[in-house]
Every structure is written in structure tokens, then in C-alpha cells.
Amino acid sequence: MKTPYGKECPFFYGDYRRGRNHEECRLLLDNHLEWNSKLCEKCPVPEIKMANACENMELIPELSKKILGKQQVKISAFCHKSSTNVEDPRIGCGQCHPLEFIIFEDPDESN
Predict the structure, then answer these.
(1) Ramachandran angles phi, psi of 2, nearest 5°
(2) Can you spell out the DSSP letters for 54-99?
């Protein structure tokens, strides 16, 4: 579902049927963190999920305060398959989905 800022996020839920206006972030609520729609503006989760949809990776949210008291979502990740902390959630642990390099030959160089 799209967040109030137009990004597709699997954890955002909005119920607008019959005049309802209920929105929530299930990732933050499941981790007992308070959510408001302004957190979606710079949340890294939509980009992480677009880059890496590994089923073994668990995203762990944290709210951090920035200057002027504004909160921001910070994400760390844990891989249940390799039982390791994930350094960069956009890439993953490197064991679940190993990157394979493909070498393409330049057709002009074959002559």
C-alpha cells in the first residue's frame, strides 16, 4: 500500500472505507513504537524492500531523534538463515542470495 508520501510500503496500512481514515505502520506498531504519518516521509523501509525482498531478513526499527526534536526511523536487520546481523539491509547478508557476476563479451571485440 502507498504511504502518505507516495512510496509503496508492505508495512503501511490505511483503511479509508466508508469515511474511515485509519492509518498505521505495522512494522513500528509490532515493535511497540509510536507512529505518525510524518515518519513515512524519510523512512528507509520502502527502498530497502524494493532492493531486497529476502524472506529470511527481519527488519528491526528504531526511532531516533534528530536536531529540533524530530524523529526519524532507523532500520537494522537480522538474517534468520545465516543467524547474523545484516550490515546493509539493501544488499542483505550475502549468503541467502549470493551475487553472481555475469561477464558479457563485447560483440565488436570478437572480430
Answers:
(1) -80, 140
(2) -TTEEEEEEEEE-GGG-EEEEEEEEETTTTEEES-TTT--SSSS--
The 10s digit of each residue's pLDDT in 78-106 is 999 999 999 999 988 888 876 666 566 66
Distance between CA 98 and CA 81 in Å, rounded? 13
Can you tell me the distance from the alpha carbon of 89 to that of 38, in angstroms, rounded to the nearest whole number? 22
- Spatial CA neighbour of 27 closest among 17, 3, 83, 90: 3
Contacts of 109 (CB under 8 A, 6+ apart): none
**pTM (global) more than 0.90:** no
